[in-house]
């Protein structure tokens, strides 16, 4: 089976799932094996770099933090640093996550991510979030007009370590899901993939 066909099947299985904000068990061990078997032998140069970024992202959708980390730490561009930062945020190493987001500087998906995150926050019923501090930070993220990865790390840390708010967690997981889908699509496009990976 070709890279494209196998990749589309895996993406269809994995990318509807909203990964947790904190470490949990892998969604499906078999998916890790399937991702590992995606052959990158036909790629060279930047195409290979982004093909590895696709695999790193798929592992994160499968909540396989270590496998994603193994790949992303060897991808020396802003997209690799982005996946690396998400992985550390998901594992709860928030200062390390911010380090990797500093390495990203700015990323081409940031403007669309800012729009989508703001729309998600505006559509949510923030009154359902009991934590006033979390509501205030979400309003700040929404009002900024640009994506602020450091503020998002702070929001996740606040939710995981202090607020533990059910509605807040659902909204933050949704925003993280939007972030990961945009970054996966970008990684796929930059690898030379035609059309859309996520449909």
What does this entry look like structurally?
The chain folds into two domains: about 5-105, no CATH class; about 110-175, no CATH class. Helices cover about 70% and strands about 0% of the residues. The protein has ten helices and no strands. The protein has helices spanning about 5-15, 30-35, 45-60, 65-70, 80-90, 95-105, 110-125, 130-145, 150-165, 165-190. It starts with a helix and ends in a 9-residue tail after the last helix.
For the termini, the CA-CA separation is 20 Å
Multimeric state: single chain
What is the succession of H and E elements?
HHHHHHHHHH
Could you describe the largest sheet, including whether it forms a barrel?
Answer: none
Could you give the topology of this structure?
Layout: H1 3-14, H2 29-37, H3 45-61, H4 65-72, H5 78-91, H6 94-104, H7 110-123, H8 132-143, H9 149-163, H10 166-190
Keywords:
2 domains; single chain; globular; 10 helices; 69% helix; 199 residues; mainly alpha
């Amino acid at each position: 089976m070709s890279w494209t066909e196998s990749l589309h099947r895996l993406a269809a299985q994995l990318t509807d799932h909203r990964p947790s904000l904190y470490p949990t068990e892998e969604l499906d061990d078999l998916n890790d094996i399937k991702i590992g078997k995606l052959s990158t032998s036909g790629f060279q140069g930047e195409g290979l770099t982004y093909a590895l970024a696709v695999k790193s992202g798929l592992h994160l959708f499968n909540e396989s933090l270590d496998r994603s980390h193994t790949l992303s730490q060897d991808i020396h561009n802003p997209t690799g640093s982005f996946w690396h930062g998400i992985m550390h945020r998901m594992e709860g190493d928030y200062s390390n996550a911010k380090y990797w987001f500093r390495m990203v500087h700015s990323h081409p998906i940031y403007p669309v991510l800012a729009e989508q995150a703001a729309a998600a926050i505006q559509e949510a019923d923030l009154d359902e979030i009991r934590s006033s501090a979390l509501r205030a930070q979400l309003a700040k993220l929404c009002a900024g007009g640009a994506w602020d990865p450091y503020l998002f790390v702070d929001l996740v840390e606040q939710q995981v370590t202090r607020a533990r708010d059910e509605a807040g967690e659902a909204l933050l997981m949704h925003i993280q899901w939007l972030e990961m889908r945009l970054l996966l699509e970008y990684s796929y496009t930059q690898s030379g993939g035609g059309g859309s990976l996520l449909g």
